[in-house]
Sequence to fold (361 residues):
Amino acid sequence: MQRTGELYGQFETLEQQKETATLGMWIFLTTEVLFFGGLFMTYTINRHAYSAAFGVGGNTLDLKLGGLNTVVLILSSLTMAMSVWAAQIGKKKQITGFLIATLLLGCVFLGVKAVEYKQKYDHHLIPGRNFDIAFCVNNPSACGLSGKALEDEQKEIAEAVKAEDKNNPGYGLANLNSHAQLYFSLYFGMTGLHALHMIIGAGLLLWLLKESLAQRFGPGYNTPVEVTGLYWHFVDIVWIYLFPLLYLIDRHN
Amino acid sequence: MSEHIASPKMYVGIFLALMICTGATVWAAYINLGQMNIVIALAIATLKATLVVLFFMHAKYSPGRTHLVIICAVFWLGIMLALTLSDYETRQKEGLRIPPSAVRVYNA
Fold:
């Protein structure tokens, strides 16, 4: 397919211009891998050191909402890939349709995240002076806890304190409370940075949508769709790692 | 070089594979496998990430220089993880466990 559009002075051909843009995005994503990698590194070291507190923290997350978000985000990656495909073969209406679908799914993801953050706020799980890992156990009605769920929660906290006490005598609930804040600092830091990337991605999608409605994309010119797609898929990959690390690995206890 | 256009069928297939992996990782998380739980969770996540990179991000159909960039990203991430972890592991006699100084004595 012959490429169309303006050729900038530093390139020989439009093909080379497009390949350069794609390569540039890949190099940017490499820096992003190391950027997020630093946070994953921090999480790994702290999780190892304060494993009991991190286990209690991780199990307070809502697996249904986290799982829903995983499905929503992977689905948005599919619609993004489909809009790149539609641009490559020149189905202009479908480019717009898939871009809108991707944008909507991205917004659903952020909405669910907001619901989760609000729940953590209500349960006194925002790091700071009002942080209380035992809030739900002490105020079960405020968290909608009762019966077996409440007993499990009480048992989990007691067992975590006991497990840590073996290595560090005198550990106690106060230390569990202070170390659980490390978990929630990392939870909010990592998911917050991920959400920021989603918001930037949504902004890029809005711009693509405007260009797509102006019939700018087709087989000859689709570099912005493809490059934004690479970014969007990368953000999906970050979540693919965040989901098991934050939500899942202590569920078996 | 002409660009490779993947079929929607393949994209849907990859999506379904990713959904199956997501189900598998949630299912495996509830089985008590001790230290293996985290290994399995990360292995499935890496499988999913590989599928996304190869097919959604077209790495499979990309030129060698794109592969070089991806390999560099993974390689440097590996350097960061390996060297930092080995430093933490050997810095104190407790290894990666809580340093005693991090446990505070609270007055009741």
